Amino acid sequence: MKREYQICKDCVSDSSLPEIFFDNLGVCNYCEQFKAIIKEIETSSKVNDYLNAHIQKIKSTKNKNYDVLIGVSGGVDSMFLVDFAVKKGLKVLAVNFDNGWHSEIAVSNIRKCLNKLNVDLETYVVDYDEMKGLLISYMKAGLAWIDFPTDNAINATLYKIASKHNIKYIFNGSSIRTEGKQPLEWTYSDSRQLKFINKKFGEKKIKTFPLLSPMKLIYYSIIKKIVLVRPLNYLNYDKSEAKKILIKKYGWKDYGGHHHESVFTKFAIAYWLPKKFNIDKRIITYSAQIRSGLLKRDKALSLLSLPPYDEKLMLEDKEYVLKKLNISSKEFEKIWNNKNKSLYSYPSLIHIIKRFSFLSSFVLNFIFGFKPLIGFELKKKKESQ
């Protein structure tokens, strides 16, 4: 049965989100989950002591060339993070994963910022045929988050290059206060599922594509002792202010939206998700910013009343994506009309993670040094309610 529409009175999370419910005051369980995450961060940080301690520890490492590795996309978060690290006196190696989909603005942003900061850049260029095959396979599989191959490959590349240069710390540019936590049903996939989908829908074997499996993550984290740190979670980070700083200092240019620095990612977020799955990821982002005091609720509602981005540009980007993937309009229409699938439609590790959630959370906490977002379960509605 179709649920009656409801929207949270404190944020803009609504009944389009999976497993959402509202208490007697009209506040959603996503707000409660967010509070739990922030409480965990603030408890572990002890008013920035956590981050400052990490920075001092990083500076004491014996690597003569680099103290920390940072993945850069040309977006505001990663470029601000490089600026922050350099100001803290850290020797940074910037790494860019080139999957063939970067916008010209993103490439220009990387070059301008890193040149002025005198930061070295290492670019990993993936085999585009393998990349293309995986993206098409995820589309054929009918999953919501079709850009997971890029996400996984970025993480695999960062750990691989950090290991190569004996860098013990990776800075990650995500921020719970500005981005929020996406529902698993919207974005989850893993290396096991990727291999299955490629075997079922792909035409080529994976030979050179960087893939981060759980065993590789354990190897890099425990054997190689590479530590992942999310500094923006421990800073008073305001993305709009960060943009102003980057524009003034480096001539950084805005690319229009969250993760729009990649043409395919923009297509996935602003076309595939909302039009095929009725998923608007802006709801999660704006809700997080409302809870963090970075955005007024009325403003967020106004923004959500508008399309994710210009309709004309959206169609132009769609045509560009199909051409670059070498898919005809007829082929795309067939893919588009395939039945939508969920993360549970194909073999993955999600059942193991959920069945042994406490153990999974403990292991990941040990690996990363902080409780991962996947460890914060969404409070379920009581049957008596």
Walk me through what this model shows.
This protein is mainly α and 385 residues long. The protein has a single domain, classed as Rossmann fold (3-Layer(aba) Sandwich). It is 52% helix and 6% strand. The chain is built from 18 helices and five strands. It has helices spanning 29-45, 49-59, 76-87, 104-117, 128-140, 148-164, 176-179, 184-187, 191-201, 214-223, 239-250, 263-277, 282-291, 297-304, 311-325, 329-337, 350-355, 357-368, and strands at residues 68-71, 92-98, 120-125, 169-171, 227-229. A five-stranded parallel beta sheet has the order 3-2-1-4-5, sandwiched between helices. Helix 3 packs parallel to helix 4 (104-117). The longest helix has 17 residues, at 29-45. It is globular and about 55 Å long. The chain starts with 28 loop residues before the first helix and ends in a 17-residue tail after the last helix.
Describe the structure concisely:
The chain is mainly alpha-helical and 385 residues long.
List the helices and strands and how they pair.
Blueprint: H1 29-45, H2 49-59, E1 68-71, H3 76-87, E2 92-98, H4 104-117, E3 120-125, H5 128-140, H6 148-164, E4 169-171, H7 176-179, H8 184-187, H9 191-201, H10 214-223, E5 227-229, H11 239-250, H12 263-277, H13 282-291, H14 297-304, H15 311-325, H16 329-337, H17 350-355, H18 357-368
Parallel strand pairs: 1-2, 1-4, 2-3, 4-5
Helix pairs in contact: 3-4, 3-11, 5-9, 12-15
Strand segment count: 5
- Helical fraction equals 40-55%
The residue-averaged pLDDT reads 90
Overall body shape: globular
Strand content range:
5-15%
Order of helices and strands, N to C?
HHEHEHEHHEHHHHEHHHHHHHH
Overall radius of gyration? 21 Å
Any idea how many domains?
Answer: 1
Query: What is the annotated CATH architecture?
Result: 3-Layer(aba) Sandwich
Biggest β-sheet: count, sense, barrel?
Answer: 5 strands, parallel
**CATH uppermost class:** Alpha Beta
Estimated structural class: mainly alpha
> Spans with pLDDT under 50 lasting ≥5 residues?
none
What's the helix count? 18
